[in-house]
Design goal:
OB fold (Dihydrolipoamide Acetyltransferase, E2P); PH_YyaB-like; 2 domains; single chain; five-stranded mixed β-sheet; transmembrane helix; 9 strands; 39% helix; 33% strand; 149 residues; four-stranded antiparallel β-sheet; membrane; alpha+beta
Amino acid sequence: MNSKFSCKKSRSFGGFLITVSLFITLVAFGLPVILKDTFDLAAFIVSSLFVLITTGLFLWLWFGTYYIIDNEILIAKFGPLTWKVPINEISFIRLNQETIGGTWKLTLSWKCIELKYKKSRSIFISPNNQSVFIDRLVKINPQIEIKQK
């Protein structure tokens, strides 16, 4: 059974990524102009590459964050990063978590769920259809305990 779940995306989180991208662009191109520094071709190329890479990474995160339940493995993709969690090692799922602070948060939403696995490890994710996602995990591992915040 192979199921793909899209990531819940908060508009304010997207706004945050856009704001950071615009700030980086402003700093990369505007600062030399403000400081009346000579802005030669090499500086322009380096600034352009930095802006393109950063914006590309943010776009990759926005469009490339999803979760796959592949047989007995949960695969969490967060842009270029991938986590593989054996579903039989998930001990509990904590609902209604906030994304600020803590450990790895492979989410684009401020609200998420925490999956605790391998005794002391955890990741935070935000599948779009949370109830179906959790049902599929529990179907594979009925030992998973569901906890509220």
